[in-house]
Design a protein that fits this description.
Layout (H helix, E strand, L loop, with lengths): L3 H8 L4 H11 L6 E6 L4 H13 L4 E5 L9 H4 L7 E5 L5 H11 L3 E5 L6 E2 L9 E6 L7 H6 L2 E4 L11 H17 L9 H15 L3 H13 L2
Parallel strand pairs: 1-2, 1-6, 2-3, 4-6, 4-7, 5-7
Length: about 220
């Protein structure tokens, strides 16, 4: 739970324009949908996907690392990594299973993106359920383990000779289509007040120079009164 006095104090150090921008962006943020990257190899793709998540209002990004280390290029992401929440699965153990467990605990259905299985076409996808969209490593796609765990599959219709899209392009197409439908629906997709306050605090801390020192000083003064 965020201390409202601390949040108000930190927001008082921001410009009115920055505070207004925070509120505008947060009004369009969602955790109804999330994105899972499974062992993406090319940093350009990871960075572009991070940027798409921010652009289309996805607050959380889950990153599973097995063979490849994930890296975000600021030149491609354009600073978008600062405004979304990363959930990294890169330690010991089965990173895929740990991620799946966390997603299911939060009520997500797992939707593997693939052109090869019996899939829901993008325009027909049911947006009412909380969904985690899984994107796999370049060329091979989503792993067999994740495909077996998936609750459903999602396909982008294609009419050319090639059967696949670059993973970052596919992510952008899916997010643009589904988040637009979501915002024009009656689904309760927006963040709760507590979630908004937590993110506002995090964004304040990232926006204010020497924020950690300022926060400690404020909390010490509060404890001494």
């Amino acid at each position: 739970m965020v201390d409202p006095a601390l949040l108000a104090y930190l927001e008082g150090l921001l410009t009115p324009r920055r505070k207004a921008r925070f509120n505008e962006v947060l009004a369009n943020r969602t955790r109804h949908f999330t994105v899972v990257l499974e062992d993406i190899f090319q940093k350009h793709n990871t960075s572009a996907i991070v940027r798409s998540c921010d652009v289309f209002g996805i607050q959380d990004l889950y990153v599973i690392e097995k063979r490849y280390h994930s890296y975000v290029s600021n030149q491609v992401a354009k600073g978008a990594q600062k405004w979304i929440d990363f959930h990294q699965y890169d330690g010991g153990g089965d990173n895929t299973k740990l991620c799946i467990r966390a997603l299911r605990k939060k009520g997500y259905q797992l939707i593997a993106t693939t052109p090869h299985e019996e899939s829901s076409m993008l325009a027909d996808f049911d947006i009412t359920r909380k969904s985690a969209f899984i994107f796999g490593v370049e060329k091979r796609g989503v792993s067999e383990e994740m495909m077996a765990e998936a609750d459903g599959y999602l396909k982008i219709p294609m009419v050319g000779f090639t059967e696949s899209l670059n993973v970052s392009v596919a992510t952008a197409i899916i997010l643009q289509s589904l988040t637009e439908r979501l915002r024009n629906s009656t689904v309760n997709w927006q963040l709760s007040k507590d979630e908004i306050d937590e993110i506002r605090l995090d964004w304040c801390m990232k926006s204010i120079p020497n924020a950690d020192q300022i926060r400690r000083r404020f909390e010490e003064e509060q404890n001494n009164t």
